[in-house]
């Protein structure tokens, strides 16, 4: 059984892989990050190396593995949030070859397929290196010498290789082929030896194979061939490399890799992507229709409700000496009208928040936005004697949609004033801070009523209001959560009932 070495796997990922390895042809072997150099002195014992999410320095570890064994496949796992950043870091870091792949730890069942593919690629690279090392010094491939080389080397190295390997004369004649290559082309040895390379392929592909052999491999050493079979289509990746003798190209090494599963997986993924794109298009169309409906409904209902309110006021003025029952009826009608107007206002807020999602990100001064908000709620600040403070010394500017950023701060600051304690004047403190890995923290703290722990999970629900004594739509925190979720951020509540609340928002920059 083959070994796959790993460093720094999260418990959940490790448990998942261990649960699957019973049915696999490999076993997981842990290597401590501090012992990496020692483990790599026996790198040939591993068919792949897995760097987990908790690896302290995945770039340095990847460089060390590539330096010690350029054939060993490496899989670097990370969470979805860091995937793009780590891919770029790997891509542009020096001393890292093409044997490295970066994937999300949320890959699920695909993770086993990825590991299997990497194992096979390690085998292929090592086998190819052996083939080249034994083929280069050959000086004469005719007669007894050729038979001697075939017996001594091909039997030992290539007979069990998990890739196809064919030795060609410079004129394109097949000199020898290992069993796996015969299997790939579904031929026996006497059908191949001393035959033109192109005749290995079905007739429709022979011209492509001949052209690849004579011209194209100098420019592009790898080419894909699709073989139509009775039950399915098979895809082969064929590589050609020349063997030089005395400055002349005397022979060619041909390596064949069956990439059918890889191509099928790619086709399946592309089909899924097309399906997802179609669903997204339908969702966008549906959302647009819903926005249009909500806008039309809220607009068309405003005029009738204003008329009803006017009629109620006229009745109230005319019926000066109305009976208590009539007065109660008018009061109930007026209350129903007010609720209807509030519903229309809520619908308008939903439309506004949806449109704000589409605005572009720009560099924003945190202090300037806070000052704009203070100006827009100046009367509430004076009436409540509120104090609003801001510390943006660590992160004075944030790249974000200005309207969205203003909406976040407006809702959190105004809530800090609205839901103030009757025992003290309201104080709202805004702070920005730089976290690790390019994460920015935006926190808004107030000394208001606080939120009971059992109700904290409800605060982001649309139209949910925890305090009925204060006017509002119940949309403010829902809008904040939607905006932050849209950009891949998080919102966390820290609150103590009777003491105040802190909302901390983490954003990627």
TrEMBL record:
UniProt entry tagged with the keyword Phosphoprotein: yes
Leading EC class: transferase
Domain Histidine kinase: 296-509
Pfam families per the UniProt record, alphabetical: HATPase_c (PF02518), PAS (PF00989)
EC number(s) per entry: 2.7.13.3
Record PANTHER family: PAC DOMAIN-CONTAINING PROTEIN, PHYTOCHROME-LIKE PROTEIN CPH1
Protein name stated in the entry: histidine kinase
């Amino acid at each position: 059984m083959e070994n796959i070495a790993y460093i720094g796997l999260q418990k959940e990922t490790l448990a998942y892989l261990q649960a699957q390895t019973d049915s696999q042809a490999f076993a997981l072997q842990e290597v401590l990050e501090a012992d990496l150099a020692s483990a790599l002195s026996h790198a040939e014992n591993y068919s792949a190396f897995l760097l987990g999410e908790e690896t302290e320095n995945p770039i340095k570890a990847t460089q060390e593995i590539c330096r010690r064994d350029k054939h060993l496949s490496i899989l670097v796992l990370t969470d979805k949030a860091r995937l793009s950043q780590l891919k770029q870091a790997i891509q542009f870091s020096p001393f890292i070859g093409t044997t490295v792949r970066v994937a999300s730890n949320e890959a699920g069942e695909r993770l086993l397929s990825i590991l299997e593919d990497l194992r096979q690629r390690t085998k292929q690279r090592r086998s190819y290196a052996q083939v080249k090392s034994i083929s280069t010094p050959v000086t004469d491939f005719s007669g007894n010498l050729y038979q001697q080389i075939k017996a001594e080397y091909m039997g030992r190295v290539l007979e069990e290789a998990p890739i196809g390997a064919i030795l060609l004369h410079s004129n394109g004649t097949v000199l020898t082929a290992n069993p796996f290559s015969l299997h790939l082309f579904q031929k026996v040895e006497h059908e191949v030896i001393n035959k033109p390379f192109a005749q290995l392929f079905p007739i429709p592909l022979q011209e492509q194979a001949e052209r690849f052999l004579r011209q194209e491999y100098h420019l592009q050493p790898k080419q894909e061939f699709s073989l139509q079979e009775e039950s399915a289509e098979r895809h082969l990746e064929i590589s050609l490399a020349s063997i030089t003798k005395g400055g002349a190209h005397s022979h060619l090494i041909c390596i064949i890799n069956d990439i059918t599963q890889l191509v099928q997986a790619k086709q399946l993924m592309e089909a899924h992507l097309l399906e997802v794109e179609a669903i997204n298009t339908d969702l966008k169309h549906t959302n647009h229709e819903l926005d249009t409906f909500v806008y039309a409904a809220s607009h068309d209902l405003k005029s009738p409700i204003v008329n009803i309110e006017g009629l109620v006021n006229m009745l109230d003025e005319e019926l000066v000496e109305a009976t208590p029952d009539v007065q109660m009826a008018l009061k109930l009608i007026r209350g129903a009208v007010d609720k209807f107007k509030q519903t229309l206002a809520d619908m308008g807020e939903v439309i506004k928040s949806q449109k704000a999602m589409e605005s572009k990100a720009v560099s924003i001064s945190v202090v300037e936005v806070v000052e704009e908000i203070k100006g827009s709620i100046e009367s509430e600040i004076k009436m409540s004697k509120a104090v609003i403070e801001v510390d943006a010394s660590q992160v004075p500017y944030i790249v974000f949609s200005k309207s969205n950023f203003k909406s976040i701060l407006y809702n959190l600051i105004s809530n800090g004033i609205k839901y103030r304690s009757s025992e003290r004047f309201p104080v709202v403190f805004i702070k920005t801070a730089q976290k690790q890995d390019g994460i920015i923290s935006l926190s808004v703290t107030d000394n208001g009523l606080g939120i009971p722990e059992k109700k904290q999970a409800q605060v982001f629900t649309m139209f949910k209001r925890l305090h009925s004594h204060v006017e509002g739509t119940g949309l403010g925190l829902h809008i904040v959560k939607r905006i932050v979720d849209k950009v891949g951020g998080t919102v966390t509540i820290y609150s103590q009932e009777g003491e105040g609340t802190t909302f901390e928002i983490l954003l990627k920059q």
